[in-house]
């Protein structure tokens, strides 16, 4: 049909029956709502209406002596579709822009309706609003479902969730790693914890795979250096605490350092570069235990003992199961250093009644028992016999009877083969 180029938006108002030449029927399952409109506005602002009001459209309905266009929509889209019709009537000096939307949900709903009706000005305004404002988690999920199907004109909305190039990601990872292994003021410890959690998540394999792979040499070299600085800080703290094990400020720093080491071990495990960590822990193990044994028996110092045991358990597990290969002399050293401490800790923890302390759970005790059995059985038979002889003098935790059975069996087999 003919449009009216001489008419302007400003001279026409929606639902003005005197000047209207088009009826838009908004139809839902239960509603049939008529909106009196003007073809020159609809054709200019909407591809949907331009097509249906063109001379090439095969059917032209007439209602109240006017052309009629039906728009079918769901009930929950009705208000948004009606709102779009009103937006089309904005005067030319007050075009549709992002300021017309007040929340993400409304803008997203209007965007979908505007996309369906082919209203580029409204689509652009919705996209500009969504691109500029923060999203709640559930809103982001809905945006990610809707926007990708709408083409490049709304692409900028997704800029904040697009993957970055690897070099940028590596730079961010290394920057966060340097902070996560530093010793910031206490006020920044929560931020440091967040950095550690997210770094761990970046290396975690999930349904989408890790953000970073462990085979990048640049990352490995920098991570190793960061962990080396962490171990250097541990050495300094241990040296200081050997002189004064009651220094409360130093003990707090020692506790934070142990927590960092526990996290660092898991990072290195995912990157399969544990060797340096294990060697450094082995070299300082004896000094750590000297400090721990000098600590008084109270709530905070018990917690420090538990944290030491956590790190030691991870290191012993790596040695016992071949994640890090050490010669027999070093495996024997680690067994002799840590087995007495673990036995003392079990006895101590069993006597405690501090509800505030994170008591070691049964799973940890079972892990340590299994680790020591495996570790002992990798040693030369004479070293096994020495350790088991000492254990039989007080056969309490850990239960090494399985190691004893295996030693007996191997000894019989070895004698028969002579």
UniProtKB/TrEMBL annotation:
Q: Which Pfam families match?
A: BTB
- Supply the Gene3D superfamilies for this chain: Potassium Channel Kv1.1, Chain A
- Signal sequence extent: none
CDD domains attached here?
A: BTB_POZ_ZBTB_KLHL-like
PROSITE patterns, alphabetically? BTB (PS50097)
Q: In which pathway does it act?
A: Protein modification; protein ubiquitination
* Record InterPro entries: At3g05675-like, BTB/POZ_dom, SKP1/BTB/POZ_sf
Boundaries of every BTB domain copy: 20-89
What protein does this entry describe? Answer: BTB domain-containing protein
Q: Which organism is it from?
A: Cuscuta europaea
């Amino acid at each position: 049909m003919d449009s009216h180029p001489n008419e302007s938006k400003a001279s026409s108002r929606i639902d003005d029956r005197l000047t209207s030449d088009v009826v838009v029927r908004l139809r839902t399952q239960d509603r049939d709502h008529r909106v009196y409109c003007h073809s020159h506005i609809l054709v200019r602002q909407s591809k949907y209406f331009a097509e249906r009001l063109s001379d090439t459209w095969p059917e032209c309905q007439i209602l109240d002596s006017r052309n009629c266009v039906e728009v079918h929509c769901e009930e929950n889209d009705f208000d948004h579709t009606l709102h779009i019709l009103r937006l089309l009537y904005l005067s030319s000096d007050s075009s549709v822009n992002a300021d017309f939307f007040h929340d993400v949900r409304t803008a997203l709903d209007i965007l979908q309706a505007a996309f369906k009706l082919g209203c580029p000005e409204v689509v652009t305004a919705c996209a500009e609003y969504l691109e500029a404002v923060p999203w709640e988690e559930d809103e982001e999920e809905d945006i990610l479902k809707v926007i990708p199907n709408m083409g490049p004109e709304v692409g900028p909305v997704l800029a904040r969730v697009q993957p970055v190039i690897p070099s940028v990601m590596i730079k961010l990872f290394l920057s966060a790693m340097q902070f996560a292994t530093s010793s910031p003021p206490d006020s920044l410890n929560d931020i440091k914890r967040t950095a550690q959690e997210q770094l761990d998540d970046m290396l975690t394999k999930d349904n989408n795979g890790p953000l970073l792979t462990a085979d990048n040499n640049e990352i490995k070299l920098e991570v190793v250096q960061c962990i080396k600085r962490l171990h250097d800080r541990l050495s300094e703290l241990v040296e200081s605490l050997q002189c004064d094990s009651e220094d409360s400020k130093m003990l707090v720093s020692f506790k934070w350092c142990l927590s960092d080491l526990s996290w660092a071990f898991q990072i290195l495990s995912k990157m399969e570069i544990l060797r340096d960590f294990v060697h450094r822990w082995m070299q300082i193990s004896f000094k750590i235990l000297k400090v721990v044994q000098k600590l008084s028996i109270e709530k905070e110092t018990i917690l420090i003992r538990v944290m030491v045991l956590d790190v030691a358990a991870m290191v012993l597990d790596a040695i016992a199961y071949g994640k890090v290969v050490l010669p027999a002399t070093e495996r024997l050293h680690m067994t002799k250093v840590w087995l007495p401490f673990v036995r003392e800790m079990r006895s101590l923890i069993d006597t405690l009644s501090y509800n505030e302390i994170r008591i070691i759970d049964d799973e940890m005790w079972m892990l340590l028992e299994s680790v020591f059995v495996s570790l002992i059985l990798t040693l030369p038979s004479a070293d096994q016999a020495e350790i088991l002889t000492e254990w039989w003098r007080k056969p309490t935790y850990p239960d090494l009877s399985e190691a004893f059975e295996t030693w007996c069996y191997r000894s019989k087999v070895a004698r028969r083969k002579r």
